[in-house]
Design brief:
Structural class: alpha/beta
Order of helices and strands: HHEHEHHEHEHEHEHEHEHHHHH
Bound molecules: sulfopyruvate, magnesium ion
Strand content: 5-15%
Helix content: 40-55%
Low-confidence stretches: 1-8
Mean pLDDT: 94
Distance between the termini: 39 Å
CATH superfamily of the largest domain: Phosphoenolpyruvate-binding domains
Number of domains: 2
CATH class of the largest domain: Alpha Beta
Shape: globular
Oligomer: single chain
Number of strands: 8
CATH architecture of the largest domain: Alpha-Beta Barrel
C-alpha cells in the first residue's frame, strides 16, 4: 500500500494494493493503448479521474502555463513537484511525470526522480534535449543531448529509485529536431539498453506517418508512448494496430480551461453575471467533485466516536 495519506482522506476509493509504478506498468503492458490524460493541478487531475481515465500525465507545459510561465524551464523543479504532489493526491491514479530534461545533468535528474517517487508518482519521463528546453511545438531550435550523456541520466535515475516497478520513460526528440528516423531509432535503442522501461516517441506532424514508420521499425522492443497533439485526428484503433502502449492527451484539459475562462471573463465584462451563470459549473457540482459530503460524514463520525466522554 503506497497511496498517500491525503488520498485516503479525500478519496477512499483510490486505495490500491499495487504501488503507483506497478499500476502504471500494468497500464503500459495491457493489450490496448492506455489513455493518459494531461493534468496541471489538483482540479484537472480530479476531473480526469472522475471522467474515468485510468492514468495521468503531469504535463510540464500545462503546469508551467498554470503557474503563469513558459514551458522553457522557467518554473523551478521544486515548483513543479509541488504541483505534481497535488495532482497525485487529487487523482488517486498512477501519474507519469513530465520531467523535461531532468533540469540539468544526471544529478538534478536523479534528485527530481527520487522526489517524484517520494510524492507518490508512478513514473518519470525524461527527454533528450539540452537544458533549458523549449516546448516541442515552439520554433525549430531543439538541440539534442549527446546520447551517452542522456544514457547516463537514465541509469542514474534508475539507480536512485526504491520501487523497482517505478517507470522510467525515455523521450526521443529526434523527430522534433528534424534529425530523422534512423537517428530516432538509434537513440531509442541506446536508451533501452541504458535501462528505460518505455520510449516516448514524439512528433509534431499532422499525420501519424512518421510515428507509424518508427513503430514498424521498433517492432515492440519496449512499450511505446505517444502524444498525438498535432495528429489528433488519427483514430484510436490505428494506435492499437501500431502496437502503441500509451496515448497521452497532454494539453487538451489546459486548453479547454483557457477557452472557458476567457469566455467567462469576456461575458462577465460585456454582459454581466447573468449571461455567464448558465454556462459554468454550479457550486454543488464543485462541492460534489471535491468530496465535501465525505467531510461532513467524517465530521459526524468523529463527533460521535467519543461523545460519551463529553457527558462524563
Ligand atoms: C507536455 O505536456 O509538457 C509535453 C507534451 O511535454 S507536449 O507539450 O505535447 O510536447
Ligand atoms: Mg513537457
Amino acid at each position: 500500500m503506497t497511496t498517500t495519506g491525503s488520498q485516503q482522506l479525500h478519496w477512499p476509493e483510490a486505495e490500491a494494493e499495487a504501488s503507483p509504478g506497478a499500476r502504471l506498468r500494468a497500464l503500459l503492458t495491457s493489450p490496448e493503448p492506455a489513455l493518459l490524460m494531461g493534468a496541471h493541478d489538483g482540479l484537472s487531475a480530479r476531473i480526469a479521474a472522475d471522467s474515468g481515465f485510468p492514468g495521468l500525465w503531469a504535463s510540464g507545459f500545462c503546469i508551467s502555463t498554470a503557474l503563469g510561465v513558459r514551458d522553457s524551464d522557467e518554473a523551478s523543479w521544486t515548483d513543479l513537484l509541488g504541483m505534481i504532489a497535488r495532482v497525485v493526491e487529487a487523482a488517486g491514479l498512477p501519474v507519469l511525470v513530465d520531467g523535461d530534461t531532468g533540469y540539468g545533468n544526471f544529478n538534478t535528474a536523479r534528485l527530481f526522480t527520487a522526489q517524484a517517487e517520494r510524492i507518490g508518482a508512478a513514473g518519470v519521463c525524461l527527454e533528450d534535449k539540452i537544458f533549458p528546453k523549449m516546448n516541442s511545438f515552439v520554433g525549430d531550435a531543439h538541440a539534442l543531448a549527446p546520447i551517452g550523456e542522456f544514457c547516463g541520466k537514465i541509469a542514474a535515475c534508475r539507480e536512485v529509485l526504491t520501487d523497482p516497478e517505478f517507470v522510467v520513460v525515455a523521450r526521443v526528440e529526434a523527430l522534433i529536431a528534424g534529425a530523422g528516423l534512423a537517428e530516432a531509432l538509434r537513440r531509442a535503442e541506446a536508451y533501452r539498453r541504458a535501462g528505460a522501461d518505455a520510449i516516448f516517441i514524439h512528433s509534431r506532424q499532422s499525420t501519424i506517418k512518421e510515428i507509424a514508420e518508427f513503430a514498424g521499425e521498433w517492432d515492440g522492443r519496449l512499450p511505446l508512448v505517444i502524444a498525438p497533439t498535432t495528429y489528433h485526428s488519427t483514430p484510436l484503433e490505428e494506435f492499437a494496430e501500431l502496437g502503441i502502449s500509451g496515448v497521452i492527451w497532454a494539453n487538451q484539459s489546459m486548453r479547454a480551461a483557457v477557452t472557458a475562462m476567457r469566455q467567462a471573463c469576456r461575458s462577465l465584462l460585456a454582459e454581466g453575471p447573468k449571461a455567464v451563470e448558465p454556462t459554468i459549473a454550479t457550486l454543488n457540482e464543485v462541492f460534489t467533485l471535491m468530496g465535501y459530503q465525505k467531510l461532513a460524514a467524517d465530521e459526524e463520525r468523529y463527533a460521535r466516536l467519543h461523545s460519551d466522554l463529553d457527558d462524563s
